[in-house]
Amino acid sequence: MPVEMESLKIIGFSIAAGIFYGVVHDQITARVCVEYFTIFHPPLIASASPTLLALAWGVVATWWAGAILGIALALAARAGSGRKLAAEEVLPMITRLVLVMAVAAAAFGIAGFALANKGLIVPPWWVQSRLPVSRFPNFMADWWAHNASYGSAFLGTVVVCIIAQRKRDEVQPKMESK
């Protein structure tokens, strides 16, 4: 069974949306705490530039999440018998998911910063040993923002697939002929 063009559009848009989100997200978090990328991650590029690190990690850390969303959503929207959703019907779902992820990242990033600033949470010991105490809140802001992004992305993928499946089951009004 050949892969349909509509399925490829859904997968392609999902990957592009994931990469776009990752690059924008990392452009912000790399400026909040560049050490998140230089200490917490293995070296990806030979640079400490927040811009370059965000570009590199924004692509590497998100294309696959976009692919998972795209494949799952293409299956939910198009596989099997019954009405198939066109790519333009699911693209708004992907856009809304990205917006929800951004809100979750911002909320959890702020919470992580505030909790660490009050001394209620701290980075793992192996990060603490390589980071000045004054940078703990910034690091925790990034860590919590990134975890919120991944968590909301995967939970959101399930929700979006359920919504797509239910949308397929809706009875479409018939057009009246004149």
How far from one another are the termini? 38 Å
Judged by helices, strands and strand pairing, the structural class is: mainly alpha
Rg, Cα atoms, Å: 20 Å
User: What characteristic shape results from the CA principal axes?
Assistant: elongated
Element order: H for helix, E for strand: HHHHHHH
Number of strands: 0
The portion of residues forming beta strands comes to under 5%
Fraction of helical residues: over 70%
Contiguous runs where pLDDT drops below 50 for at least 5 residues = none
Kindly state the mean pLDDT as a whole number?
92
**How many distinct helices?**
7
Main pleated sheet: none
Layout of helices and strands:
Elements: H1 5-32, H2 35-38, H3 50-60, H4 63-78, H5 87-117, H6 125-128, H7 136-169
Structure, described:
- With 178 residues, this protein is an all-alpha fold.
- It has helices spanning 5-32, 35-38, 50-60, 63-78, 87-117, 125-128, 136-169.
- It has one domain (5-169).
- It is 72% helix and 0% strand.
- It is elongated.
- The mean pLDDT is 92.
